[in-house]
Amino acid sequence: MESRTTSRRTFLSLSMGLPLGAALAACGTSGPTRAGGASGGSSGGAGKAAASYWYLSVQPQEGVRTRALERFNKANPNSRVAGTTFQNDAYKTKIKTAIGAGQAPTIIWGWGGGTLRTYVKAGQVEDLTSWFEQNPAVKDRLFPSSFGAATIDGKIYAMPCETVQPVVLFYNKKLFEQIGAQPPQSWGDIMDLVPKFNAKGIAPFSLGGQSRWTNMMWLEFLFDRIGGSEVFQAVFDGQKDAWSHPAAIQALTKMQELIKANGFIKGFSSITADSNADQALLYTGKAAMMLHGAWTYGGMLHDGGDFVPGGHLGYMNFPPVEGGKGDPSDTVGNPGQYLSISSKATPEQKEIAKKFFATGVLGDQEVKEWVDTGGVPIVKGADSAFAASKDADFLKFIYGIASNAKTFAQSWDQALSPTAAEVLLDNIAKLFQLSISPQQFTTNMNAVIGK
Question: pTM here?
Answer without folding.
Answer: 0.78
